[in-house]
Amino acid sequence: MFVPDAVPPHFRPIASRHSPGHPFRRFMLRYIPIGGIGMSHLSEQKDDLLKRVRRIAGQVQAIERSLESDADCEKVLHLVAATRGAMNSLLDEIVEAHAREHVAHPDLTANQRKKGVDALIAAIRRYSK
């Protein structure tokens, strides 16, 4: 993976000791930026979110194995639907955390709330495409 020197440190992928040869686990971001807003508050939920991501990676691997072994389409459809459900749950958790921290937090200024709402709307639009 190419990472230019101009990329800020919080965007640079860091090596993971988990399954170093596996493409889904080789790199992780230090935190997830949305619309230029750092979401370091996710660190409170980091362990739970990483468990979800690892389960999703396992589900994607199961889809890959099923396709490679010419499994019947019903099994593949079931695996894809389960993976999509897991991704939706992950998205729900992150959207909720973003809304609470960057939209509804009582200490935010009107400008900060506007930026939080704009970032949330942009993320939802990208997801719904």
Beta-strand content bin: 5-15%
Please, how many domains? 1
Strands of the largest sheet, in order across it? 1-2
Strand pairing plus helix content: what structural class?
mainly alpha
Question: What does this molecule look like?
Answer:
With 129 residues, the protein is mostly helical. It has one domain (15-128): Metal-sensitive repressor, helix protomer (Methane Monooxygenase Hydroxylase, Chain G, domain 1), CATH 1.20.58.1000. The chain is built from three helices and four strands. The protein has helices at residues 46-68, 73-102, 110-128; strands at residues 14-15, 27-28, 33-34, 37-38. The strands form two sheets. The chain has a two-stranded antiparallel ribbon with strand order 1-2. A hairpin with a 2-residue loop joins β3 (33-34) and β4 (37-38). It is elongated and about 55 Å long.
Offer a few descriptive terms.
mainly alpha; 129 residues; two-stranded antiparallel ribbon; 4 strands; 3 helices; 56% helix
Give the helices and strands, then pairings.
Blueprint: E1 14-15, E2 27-28, E3 33-34, E4 37-38, H1 46-68, H2 73-102, H3 110-128
Antiparallel strand pairs: 1-2, 3-4
Helix pairs in contact: 1-2, 2-3
